[in-house]
Amino acid sequence: MKISTIPITHRIKHLQPIFTIAKNNTYFCSGGINGEMKLWNLSYDHIKTVKKHSGSVSCVGFSLDERFLASAGDDGKLFIFEVASMDIVKTIKHQTDVTHFIWTPEFILSANLNGELVITRIADFQEFRKIKTHDESILGMAVSPDFKLLCTCSESKIVLYENFNVICEKLLEKGTILENLQSKPSFSPNGNFISLGLQFNKKIPTVDILDLNLAPVFSLAGHVAPSEVTAFCPLVFKNIKKFFILAVASQDLSISLWNTLNPKPFVLLKNITESPILDMFWDGLILYASSYDGVVVKIEFDEKELGEVIEEGSTDQETGLPFCDKNIEIKRTYEKRTEKLDFGEKLEVIKLTGFTVGDNRQLEDVLAEQAKIEPVKTVVKKKGDLEPKPVRIAPVMLDQEKKKPVVSVKEGSTVFLFDTVVPEKLKIQRSTPFKQNFGDFSIELKESGEVHVFRAGRFFYKITGPCGKVCFNGNYVIVYTSYVQIYELFTGILLFPFISIRLAYLDLLDDKVLLLDAYGDFKVLKIKTGRATVGKLSKTRGLTKIQLSKSHFIVAEYNNDELMFYYKRTGMWMMLNPKFNSIVSGAIDFYNDHDETLAELELCFVHYSLLDDQCNMKKVIKQIGSVLIKIQKLEDAIEYKLERFLSQIKDKKFVQMMLEELNEVLAFQKFVVKQLRKLNE
Question: How far apart are CA 18 and CA 110, in angstroms?
């Protein structure tokens, strides 16, 4: 770094304040207190003095194509010169002092003490529009690198415009300012941040870094007096990670340089001038500043001294100021850690291994058929009525079309379903005989409807039928005739008396038996204890599958792949997979602009937390983290939810790693520090 004073001066016997300075590829231009504007070549030789203002020159600047030069003054005039001849091509008159102006490709924007913004077309230098959003003097203006955004600021308010329409405004906190002439904001090279001086944080003078909602993201504290001038370097630097550089000039006669990787200044130049800095701008790696004592300072950096220059106007969103020193420490730990979280890990999709009832019939139809069976009518006898004589009805056997059994092998059991229609009175439906090996045991259904059990190839015992439904696993054999019969596989012992139920569905998992009747009532019998859980389906319409589950107790599937599970603790059915417009499930409705990805992930987490499924809970948090990192934003409501989710994870190492991942995004760093403190308590 090389610091020098260049011979650009304004004198009336003594050095006079230089309020403004500008540069293009050919000239320097400076404006002074006595209304003079001076042109200098790049070797600092004086070329020409132009005095058109009757007051101080507040601002000078070259147009982007370098054809024109403008000067604004306390006399309320904005002069536009043609650089080649230095002839005035247009005079724009304001009602009061012109405080600032900015060139854009199509317009020149000028502001005054009345809070007015005047927009003039460059093509014909005619007034295009006049905007008044401030009730007091506009102290400074800045335009984004792409010229889409404009901000103006006064002592009490900052306003952000897009295409000259107000999109956001914010009242500013006032502090103790003895005297100030201006407040010059600056846009970051990616246009996502605005630096604003003359700010206060708990009465301490700061420079605030605002986002595009004009919300303060960081407060740069350190100067003992207010800072009037800020300037982002238009270059983007890289030192492991991309960053920006901001220069701040304070009334305490110092200039500080900050980068977006550190919450503290990396350069502080004290007493660089004898009076406050009035204007400051970057020209590549060189910073120029003019002061009230009439001195122009040049601060020159060597190549790569600030960092590797990679591009101009980067839109990389990784740049920004860390929240505090703790975030820098977390980042270093994260970069050293070889183990990273796998954000591509997918959530497990719950699918039933059950089967559609009968010949592609739905349980809904079966239950409806069974419900049509008329119940026995209760007759209230009157006194004197004669008792009817009982009539014996001879049973009739009706041969039915033989059907192949449907076999389902799932967690812990094998189920054979032959017929789901409960036989009507005096009707028996037969199924095709089968023989199935199961370890050392073989189970065979005979033509007669009997179930024969063989052990090591030898006949062991039989269960008389006719059996319409059979299911078994390594411990039990369950058959349904007109009653449910439960036997121990190894001994053939009947474990319970015959269970009377108008059965529609039968399932077996470990030592639990699901019995579903025609009206949607179910019982889950635990064979070892003899205790049963009793409940009812929330709905039967559209039901296609139902089965026991180790994780969810009972899972039912309906039309359109709708899944419900029975939460035994509350005795309620709960939705497993509601329809969301979400990238997680892939059910994206392109006609719906409302993204429900986070809502779906929240439901997934709550579902797994009910089951205390820590593995899937961590997968959901990784999915949430992946989404948040992409959107680079953490709203208050999402912050509360994420905090609650992390508190339910028992694996503290995982929580630490997750927070380190989130720390890579500046918007999350305050949240990360807060959660790490809780984690270490």
Answer: 20
